């Protein structure tokens, strides 16, 4: 109760307080945004402290403070602003116009006040809705604004608690662990020794893995916490923008030195500080200018197709209205002109004269417009909106969309396009994370041209699959299926190797439960925190062969056998490098699981490079000596020969790395600090703890026969699942990534012990380069190494080319490796694996130094930085040596093939747009039944546009020939033997196109032929498509084919596609929330699309269309596509409704209001019973509403008739109802009118229900049968379809309508297929088309089911044409029924639900009925 | 789930599961009756409807046929009178005429006398509203604010009582009925009260309160077309004078159609008229005041008996019979369709 008052007071205070400060805290962020923009392209942030005070005031005045206001209205501007917004709607303006019109005395039809009622009611309802929404936003804002944080106070010289809203740009903020960041700030201090702060961005983008943020260079080496008083630098950065992944700027120290800032230095509002005791930062963006707020666009509004359609219908209604009014007006004029004198009943003007007939006619026109205004339903828009809200509510509450593992259900972000879901014709789907789980599982690898197929691992995965199917409901892999896991583990161990001793196995299984329990405890509250780490991904069983080779390396390194075979040693080099690359070349964060979010500290060994020079030398010598004697690696050998020199050079490079001008001194200082305060001490005991606990979990360690060193269980938090998979794979081979800091990476390598690599650079992954690189200094060879991993398409071009032919042995070798690896890669792709190439490069120090210089320049420039960085990266990643390749499996999501088939059968075309390479994409397409084994696959892969055109026209020709041929046979067969039992497999084609060709195809000149081609194909797969291409394709289909499109994706690369499509669906998977943020609907699993589209889409659409039609009907009945039919029916009913009472009372002494009463009453009954006829099912809601409205009508009219003597002048219904209730004729008239009016529609529906069953009706029938009967019925239905289908083809064979399918007899396939091959082969001769005739090795269903499916598909197409559903929802009707028919009992529940159709709209329609009663009464009496 | 203004992860207490309730309403699984509109299911409804309509229709026709009614058009019977009334300046000249007719059969039971008007568009939109219900309730209201314009006040400001076009155009013929028995002429006793609705007479229409009627209407003037002020409508009966005059009340109940009748008198069933009107010769004595030629209209006087189903209009009965027949026929047709289809067994319902 008190809240609204407080809200009011608050609003008032705000208003007063903001009076003076121009707009600085005004709600519209745009305005402020601009105001700060005016200060320049960059923003300058100065600490709000003593010596800067004046300047601070000057600069920071224009910046927003951290108070946020997301509300739209204030208390004062609510009314005008809300009204203003509401009158943006044309419909509301129209009704306003009518109200105003009624105030003109000449044309006044009703009492002025009464006409205003409907409009006022509508406006009030909407205003209340808006107000409530705004109020809840206000409460939320208040809560956020009053959160506390520690801000440095100048007065008290310490950090004090302040509300978020009082934080200003330039404030210093100190945050502790697990605190939420109140504003965007630049990180100046972290308690972490490496100057790192970990943040969790789940609140911002949903990504659950930790992100590292770095202290600004120059501040990272400080010992103690930064003292704000001493901070004398100024920060210059970009103006506020909404790009989360970009932040550019620099810190300018008082001595004019500049240090570049990047997004690595920025802590974003809304994120949480983790793993870091304390951080201090300076606020650069606050409040609405933070990136989080700028990204928060709120729910967006799209106009649905139906809404657009309704608008045209309304235009028709307006036209009809004008026509009717014109008729009335002209008639009135003519009628008046027949009288020479003024008759009594024509009331003269005050001056005694009558107005001329033409003017009277003109007046009459406007009067009629007021009188007949109900033709355009005033409440239609409101009702549509309310019904949509209801639908959204029901969708959100559908338990079938609930995904237990992620505890997430569907989110509807766009509120008003629910019914578009029932209209989708095209689905554009991303592959990774959408169709697949995005759980990467390491499957195979190829090193130095030798493949290791990891059969044991494959077995393990199979056992997982079984487990999945057995134990579907297990909430969590981690704890749900322990027994299964231990079973397979035992099995694996036995299969894998002999060295594994019994004891360790026991230990393994024994310790596991304990660990799990602990894991469970730790993880339940943060369920889903550790991304990409389900056991299916983490546990990799090593390949025996490879393991053997591996163990050789390690053991020989102990045996000091320097003179091993040359070839073998080369291979071992490769293997070592390969796994090092897997372990190093990533951005994985290492942490210890049972202390969640606790960073794993590196061991003391890791501190190597930053000790005093003397120590370094000693250590290095120790190391190099040891390696010298032991390591068989050639590179090491090299280094050993030049050891003294290399040491010097190493030092110089080390210097150079740190030699960024401003930091030189600081680095030295930091080095000294580290050596003095030895922070490792505190960490050691902790590590020991973890070691004990984790012994069992790191079970792979037991596999290694060399030593059973206790290893801590490490948690790898990766940005992408591929990375995690590779690191886990490396770990399986005892190449364990131990820790990672910005400076170094520690890898525990088999028997060699820990190797600490000095990390010189990371060139992160981006979609342009399609690769990432790390630059490290090898601790043994002391060389600068570049490890690169990336997509094979780009990597293969970057390899060292054998320019001097065959001169060098290793070059030859490399070439051979390249060829073999390419073969393996192709093989992997064919198996549907994701492929990555791993390569390395050895750089000389000089080369590196040169590159570093360039790179540094690129890094520090503010403008054009990205392009420069890219260029710099490209310069580094050349002349690589191929090490090998990996194949990672991305498993299909549960239920994907089913869903795709169901959608396909519903007549929806599905395209797959992916960035993956062709083979992978095609195989996933097979796996998810997007392509069937019987399909002809056409692959477009052209170098030029002309070639592309040629190929496409050839393919088209081929398809046409096929379809016409099969059509012919089908026609013949259809007429000869329509036996329903014969199978009818159809000809179908799939199109595969890659990104480069797509570019040609999307050119204007080829668009049409491309679309024509795609229309003939049942599936299209676009591979290697960039995000931009994805969106272009969607837009092309949407605009050119005028089709309703839906795009579904889960990652940032799908965002553009999602935004372009009519309906965007985001999958809230593991890749963050960007897709979800851009989407209209967010689901957690691809399979949810089935119900969303086929059931909810259908419901929403039919319900809403029915409601809209009912609205039109209802208003016309008193006064027709389905619209016109409805209008016609309504017209008929209105005629009956008027003329039956008319003739009955004709010539009697009935008065005008008594005459209206039976009409009104009859209309009520007609409308209600009409509703009942149209109802698919009747629940208690219907009953209550229908009975209720009848009762309410009588109670109201009786009460009104008894009490109202003068209340409603001039129409006075006094005692009329009472009088009629005693008159038998009244009842007889009402009865007859109702019967006669409804008879045609009733008859029509009865005939339709018997003779022309729509699929929906059939599905309804199914619902009443027992399961056994249902099966039989479905079978008969299918048989029926074939007959129908044939008939259909006979009927339409003349037309050249798109041949979506063709029926042909089994025998005819043989004759059809050879012909289809001919054009293809012709093309492939030119090398333009590849006849991809390979069959996937993914098991498929038997051919019979495929044939059956295609039948259904065909039926659907024909059903679409024949279906005479009045409401034009043919498409969706067919969908539901197919869904029901194919799945038998499982889907019958859906059909059952379908029967419950239109609860909402009917309810709503009825609610509005009583309202319309009031407006209609006077009208009927004026007939 | 809703888009939050700021994305704050909820700390602390374990969040309840987001799993939606598995309730019938939320899952759209409410138990429902699903009417199946197939021929087999609805066949009976057609026949039932047919039978019902036919029987009602027959009853209605029989009862409508028992109504005796005679209607006489007298608009031109008094030719000089109609001419006289064409010119509105002769409004105060009296004009009488008589119309003879013969009843061939007795009219038994209650006999009602109506006057009928043709082409008088009492349902004209602006005519219908041209009244002030508040004034007719006897309240002292400012009729300027009502819909009476332009029949509210005279130029000098005197308000009209009653105001409005309806009252102004009140039917003002007087009709008397005489029975010519042999050579003697007997005036048929007619009741001029009790013809209107009880509620109208006693609730809806009230005279202004005063010690007598003329003083109650002091300060007001009669409507322009009226020959005498409202308080002189019935000088004999105080309770039938002023606004509560039955003729006035009935006129004020505006008709729904352009051709209509209004109840004028009832035959008082005494003496030889105790059973109704006996057959024989009758004469209407009409004081012809209401001009109809101006609007190309006609005037009738109607004598009629009534039954439970209203007057002599046979429409409702015929309509019932026709629709009853139609329903029955449709029933037969769809039966045939049903039987044919059943043999084919194309459907899976049994």
Beta content of chain B comes to 15-25%
Mean pLDDT of chain B: 85
Query: What is Rg of chain B?
Result: 32 Å
Largest sheet strand order of chain A: 14-34-33-32-15-28-31-30-29
What's the number of extended β-strand segments of chain B? 11
Estimate nothing, just give the exact number of structural domains of chain B: 2
Figure out the total of helices of chain A: 50
Instruction: Give the assembly state of these chains.
Output: heterodimer
The largest sheet of chain A is: 9 strands, mixed
Structural class of chain A: alpha+beta
- Proportion of beta-strand residues of chain A: 5-15%
Supply the number of helical segments of chain B. 9
**Low-pLDDT residue intervals, each spanning 5 or more residues of chain A:** 15-39, 468-531, 557-566, 594-617, 619-710, 969-985, 1285-1423
Helix-strand pattern of chain B: HEHEEEHHHEEEHHHEEEEH
Specify the overall morphology of chain A.
globular
**Care to count the β-strands of chain A?**
34
Rg over alpha carbons of chain A:
38 Å
Distance between the termini of chain A: 51 Å
Largest interface: A-B, 120 and 104 residues
- Give the helix proportion of chain B (percent range): 25-40%
N-to-C span of chain B: 48 Å
Write the layout of secondary structure elements.
The complex is a heterodimer of chains A (1423) and B (350).
Chain A: H1 2-20, H2 29-37, E1 42-45, H3 53-60, H4 78-86, H5 90-102, H6 112-145, E2 148-153, E3 158-163, E4 172-176, E5 184-190, E6 196-200, H7 202-205, E7 210-214, E8 234-238, E9 249-252, E10 258-261, E11 266-267, E12 272-274, E13 278-285, H8 291-295, H9 305-337, H10 357-371, H11 380-396, E14 411-412, E15 426-429, E16 436-447, E17 450-452, H12 455-470, H13 477-480, H14 482-496, H15 502-523, H16 535-538, H17 544-559, H18 566-584, E18 589-592, E19 598-599, H19 613-630, H20 634-641, H21 643-658, H22 664-677, H23 680-694, H24 700-703, E20 715-717, H25 721-732, E21 735-740, E22 744-749, E23 753-766, E24 771-777, E25 784-790, H26 792-798, H27 809-830, E26 833-843, H28 845-860, H29 865-876, E27 881-892, H30 896-905, E28 909-913, H31 918-927, E29 936-940, H32 945-976, E30 989-994, H33 995-1001, H34 1004-1016, E31 1019-1023, H35 1027-1040, E32 1045-1049, H36 1055-1060, E33 1063-1067, H37 1074-1078, E34 1081-1083, H38 1088-1117, H39 1122-1145, H40 1152-1174, H41 1180-1203, H42 1216-1221, H43 1224-1250, H44 1255-1263, H45 1267-1292, H46 1306-1325, ...
Parallel strand pairs in A: 15-28, 15-32, 28-31, 29-30, 30-31, 32-33, 33-34
Antiparallel strand pairs in A: 1-8, 2-3, 2-4, 4-13, 5-11, 5-13, 6-7, 6-12, 8-9, 9-10, 14-34, 16-17, 16-27, 18-19, 18-20, 21-22, 22-23, 23-24, 24-25, 25-26, 26-27
Chain B: H1 39-65, E1 69-73, H2 79-86, E2 96-103, E3 107-108, E4 111-118, H3 125-128, H4 133-136, H5 165-168, E5 174-181, E6 184-187, E7 190-191, H6 198-204, H7 213-216, H8 246-252, E8 260-267, E9 276-277, E10 280-287, E11 298-305, H9 315-344
Antiparallel strand pairs in B: 1-11, 2-10, 3-9, 4-8, 4-11, 5-6, 5-10, 7-8
Helix pairs in contact in B: 1-9
């Amino acid at each position: 109760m008190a809240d609204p008052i407080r809200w009011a007071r608050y609003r008032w205070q705000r208003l007063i307080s903001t009076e003076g400060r121009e707009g600085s805290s005004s709600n519209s962020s745009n305005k402020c945004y601009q105001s700060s923009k005016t200060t320049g392209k960059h923003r300058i942030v100065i600490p709000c402290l003593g010596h800067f005070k004046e300047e601070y005031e000057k600069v920071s005045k224009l910046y927003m403070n951290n108070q946020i206001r997301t509300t739209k209205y204030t208390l004062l501007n609510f009314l005008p602003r809300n009204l203003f917004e509401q009158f943006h709607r044309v419909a509301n303006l129209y009704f306003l116009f009518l109200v105003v019109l009624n105030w003109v005395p000449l044309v006044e039809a009703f009492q002025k006040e009464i006409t205003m009622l409907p409009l006022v009611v509508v406006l009030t309802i909407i205003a209340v809705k808006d107000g409530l929404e705004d109020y809840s936003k206000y409460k939320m804002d208040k809560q956020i604004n009053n959160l506390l944080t520690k801000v440095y106070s100048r007065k008290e010289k310490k950090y004090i608690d302040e509300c978020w809203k009082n934080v200003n740009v330039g404030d210093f903020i100190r945050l502790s662990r697990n605190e939420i960041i109140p504003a965007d700030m630049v990180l100046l201090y972290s308690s972490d020794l490496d100057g790192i702060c970990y943040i969790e961005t789940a609140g911002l983008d949903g990504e659950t893995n930790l992100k590292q943020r770095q202290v600004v260079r120059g501040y990272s080496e400080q010992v103690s916490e930064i003292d704000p008083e001493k901070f004398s630098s100024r920060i210059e950065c970009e103006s506020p923008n909404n790009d989360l992944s970009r932040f550019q700027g620099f810190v300018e120290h008082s001595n004019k030195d500049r240090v570049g800032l990047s997004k690595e230095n920025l802590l974003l509002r809304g994120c949480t500080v983790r793993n870091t005791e304390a951080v201090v930062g300076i606020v650069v963006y606050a409040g609405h200018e933070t990136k989080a707020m700028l990204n928060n666009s709120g729910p967006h509004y799209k106009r649905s197709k139906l809404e657009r359609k309704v608008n045209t219908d309304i235009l028709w209604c307006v036209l009809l209205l004008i026509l009717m009014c014109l008729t009335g007006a002209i008639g009135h004029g003519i009628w008046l002109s027949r009288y020479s004198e003024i008759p009594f009943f024509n009331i003269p003007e005050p001056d005694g004269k009558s107005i001329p007939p033409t003017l009277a006619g003109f007046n009459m026109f406007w009067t009629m417009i007021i009188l007949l205004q109900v033709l355009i339903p005033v409440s239609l828009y409101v009702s549509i909106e309310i019904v949509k809200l209801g639908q959204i509510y029901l969708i959100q509450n559908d338990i079938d969309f609930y995904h237990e593992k992620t505890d997430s259900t569907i989110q509807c972000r766009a509120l008003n396009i629910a019914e578009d879901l029932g209209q989708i014709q095209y689905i554009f789907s991303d592959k990774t994370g959408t169709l697949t789980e995005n759980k990467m599982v390491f499957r195979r690898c190829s090193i130095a041209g030798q493949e290791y197929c990891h059969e044991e691992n494959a077995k393990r995965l199979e056992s997982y699959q079984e487990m999945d199917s057995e134990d579907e409901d297990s909430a969590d892999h981690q704890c749900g299926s322990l027994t299964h896991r231990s079973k397979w583990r035992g099995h694996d161990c036995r299969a894998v190797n002999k060295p594994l001793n019994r004891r360790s196995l026991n230990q393994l299984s024994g310790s596991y439960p304990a660990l799990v329990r602990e894991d469970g405890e730790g993880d339940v509250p943060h369920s889903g925190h550790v991304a990409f780490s389900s056991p299916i991904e983490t546990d990799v069983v090593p390949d025996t062969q490879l393991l053997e080779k591996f163990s050789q390396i390690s053991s020989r390194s102990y045996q000091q056998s320097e003179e091993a075979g040359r070839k073998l040693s080369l291979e071992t080099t490769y293997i070592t490098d390969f796994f090092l690359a897997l372990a190093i070349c990533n951005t994985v964060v290492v942490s210890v699981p049972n202390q969640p979010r606790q960073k794993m500290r590196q061991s003391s060994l890791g501190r190597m490079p930053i000790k005093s020079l003397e120590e370094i030398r000693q250590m290095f010598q120790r190391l190099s000596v040891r390696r010298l004697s032991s390591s068989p690696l050639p590179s090491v050998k090299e280094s050993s020969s030049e050891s003294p020199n290399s040491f010097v050079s190493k030092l110089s490079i080390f210097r150079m790395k740190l030699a960024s001008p401003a930091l030189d001194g600081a680095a030295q200082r930091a080095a000294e600090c580290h050596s003095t305060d030895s922070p490792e001490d505190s960490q050691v005991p902790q590590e020991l703890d973890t070691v004990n606990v984790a012994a069992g979990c790191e079970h792979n360690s037991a596999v290694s026969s060399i030593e059973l060193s206790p290893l801590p269980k490490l948690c790898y938090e990766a940005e992408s699942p591929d990375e995690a998979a590779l690191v886990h794979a490396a770990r399986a081979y005892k190449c364990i990534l131990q820790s990672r800091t910005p400076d170094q990476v520690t890898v525990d390598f088999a028997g060699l012990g820990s190797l600490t690599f000095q990390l010189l650079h990371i060139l992160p992954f981006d979609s342009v380069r399609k690769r990432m690189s790390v630059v490290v200094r090898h601790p043994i060879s002391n060389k600068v190494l570049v490890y690169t991993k990336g997509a094979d398409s780009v990597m293969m071009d970057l390899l060292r080319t054998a320019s001097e032919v065959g001169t060098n042995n290793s070059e030859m070798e490399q070439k051979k490796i390249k060829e073999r690896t390419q073969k393996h890669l192709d093989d992997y792709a064919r198996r549907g694996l994701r492929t990555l190439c791993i390569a390395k490069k050895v750089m000389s120090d000089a080369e590196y130094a040169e590159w570093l210089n360039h790179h540094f320049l690129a890094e520090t420039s503010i403008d054009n930085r990205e392009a420069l960085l890219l260029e710099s990266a490209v310069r580094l990643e050349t002349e690589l040596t191929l090490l090998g390749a990996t194949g990672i499996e991305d498993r299909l999501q549960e239920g994907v093939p089913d869903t795709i088939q169901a959608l396909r059968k519903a007549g929806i075309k599905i395209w797959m747009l992916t960035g993956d390479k062709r083979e992978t994409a095609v195989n996933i397409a097979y796996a998810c039944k997007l392509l069937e084994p019987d399909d002809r696959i056409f692959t477009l892969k052209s170098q030029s546009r002309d070639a592309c055109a040629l190929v496409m026209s050839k393919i088209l020709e081929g398809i046409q020939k096929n379809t016409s041929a099969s059509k012919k046979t089908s026609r013949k067969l259809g007429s000869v033997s329509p036996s329903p039992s014969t199978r009818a497999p159809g000809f179908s084609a799939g199109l595969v196109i890659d990104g480069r060709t797509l570019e040609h195809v999307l050119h204007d000149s080829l668009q049409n032929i491309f679309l024509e081609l795609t229309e003939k194909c049942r599936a299209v797969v676009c591979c290697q498509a960039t995000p931009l291409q994805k969106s272009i394709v969607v837009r092309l289909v949407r605009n050119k084919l005028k089709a309703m499109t839906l795009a579904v994706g889960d990652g940032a690369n799908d965002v553009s596609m999602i935004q372009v499509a009519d309906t965007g669906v985001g999958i809230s998977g593991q890749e963050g929330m960007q897709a979800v943020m851009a989407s209209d609907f967010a689901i957690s699993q691809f399979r949810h699309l089935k119900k969303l589209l086929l059931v909810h889409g259908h419901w929403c659409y039919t319900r809403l269309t029915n409601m809209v039609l009912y609205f039109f009907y209802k208003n016309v009945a008193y006064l027709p596509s389905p619209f016109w039919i409805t209008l016609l029916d309504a017209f008929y009913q209105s005629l009956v409704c008027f003329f039956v009472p008319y003739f009955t009372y004709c010539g009697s002494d009935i008065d005008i209001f008594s005459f209206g009463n039976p009409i009104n009453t009859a209309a009520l009954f007609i409308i209600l019973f009409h509703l009942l006829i149209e109802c698919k099912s009747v629940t208690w809601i219907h009953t209550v509403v229908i009975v209720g409205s009848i009762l309410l009508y009588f109670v109201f009219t009786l009460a009104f008739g008894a009490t109202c003597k003068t209340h409603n002048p001039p129409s006075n219904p006094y005692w009329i109802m009472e009088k009629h209730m005693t008159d038998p004729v009244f009842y007889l008239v009402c009865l007859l009118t109702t019967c006669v009016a409804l008879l045609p529609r009733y008859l029509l529906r009865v005939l339709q229900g018997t003779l022309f069953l729509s699929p929906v009706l059939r599905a309804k029938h199914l619902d009443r049968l027992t399961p056994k009967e249902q099966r039989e019925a479905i079978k008969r239905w299918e048989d029926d379809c074939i007959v129908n289908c044939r008939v259909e083809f006979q009927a339409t064979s003349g037309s050249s309508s798109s041949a979506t399918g063709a029926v042909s007899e089994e025998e005819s396939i043989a004759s059809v297929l050879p012909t289809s091959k001919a054009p293809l082969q012709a093309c492939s001769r030119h090398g333009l088309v590849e006849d991809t005739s390979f069959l996937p090795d993914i098991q498929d269903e038997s051919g019979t089911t495929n044939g059956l499916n295609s039948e259904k598909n065909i039926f659907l197409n024909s059903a679409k044409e024949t279906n005479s559903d009045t409401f034009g929802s043919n498409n969706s009707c067919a969908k539901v029924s197919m869904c029901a028919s194919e799945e038998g009992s499982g889907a019958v529940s859906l059909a059952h639900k379908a029967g419950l159709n239109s609860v909402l709209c009917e309810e709503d329609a009825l609610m509005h009925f009583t309202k319309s009663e009031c407006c209609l009464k006077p009208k009927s009496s004026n007939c | 789930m809703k888009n939050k203004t700021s994305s704050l992860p909820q700390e602390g207490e374990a969040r309840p599961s987001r799993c939606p309730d598995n309730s019938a309403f939320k899952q759209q699984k409410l138990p429902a009756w699903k009417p199946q509109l197939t021929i087999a299911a609805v066949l009976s409804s057609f026949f039932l409807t047919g039978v019902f309509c036919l029987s009602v229709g027959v009853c209605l026709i029989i009862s409508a046929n028992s109504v005796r009614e005679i209607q006489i058009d007298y608009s031109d019977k008094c030719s000089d009178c109609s001419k006289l009334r064409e010119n509105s300046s002769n409004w105060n000249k009296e004009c009488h005429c008589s119309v003879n007719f013969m009843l061939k059969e007795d009219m038994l039971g209650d006999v009602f006398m109506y006057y009928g008007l043709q082409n008088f568009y009492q349902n004209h939109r602006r005519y219908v509203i041209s009244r002030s219900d508040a004034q007719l309730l006897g309240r002292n209201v400012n009729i300027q604010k009502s819909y009476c314009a332009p029949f509210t006040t005279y130029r000098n400001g005197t308000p009209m009582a009653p105001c409005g076009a309806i009252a102004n155009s009140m039917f003002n013929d007087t009709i008397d009925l005489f029975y010519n028995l042999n050579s003697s002429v007997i005036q048929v006793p007619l009741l001029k009260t009790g013809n209107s609705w009880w509620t109208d007479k006693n609730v809806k229409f009230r005279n202004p309160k005063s010690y007598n009627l003329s003083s109650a209407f002091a300060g007001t003037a009669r409507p322009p077309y009226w020959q005498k002020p409202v308080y002189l409508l019935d000088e004999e009966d105080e309770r039938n004078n002023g606004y509560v005059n039955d003729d006035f009340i009935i006129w004020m109940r505006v008709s729904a159609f352009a051709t209509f009748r209004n109840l004028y008198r009832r035959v008082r069933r005494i003496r030889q008229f105790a059973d109704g009107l006996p057959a024989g010769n009758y004469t209407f004595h009409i004081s012809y005041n209401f001009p109809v030629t101006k609007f190309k209209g006609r005037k009738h006087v109607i004598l009629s008996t009534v039954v439970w189903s209203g007057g002599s209009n046979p429409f409702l009965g015929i309509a019932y019979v026709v629709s009853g027949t139609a329903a029955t026929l449709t029933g037969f047709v769809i039966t045939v369709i049903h039987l044919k289809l059943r043999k084919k067994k194309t459907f899976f319902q049994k």
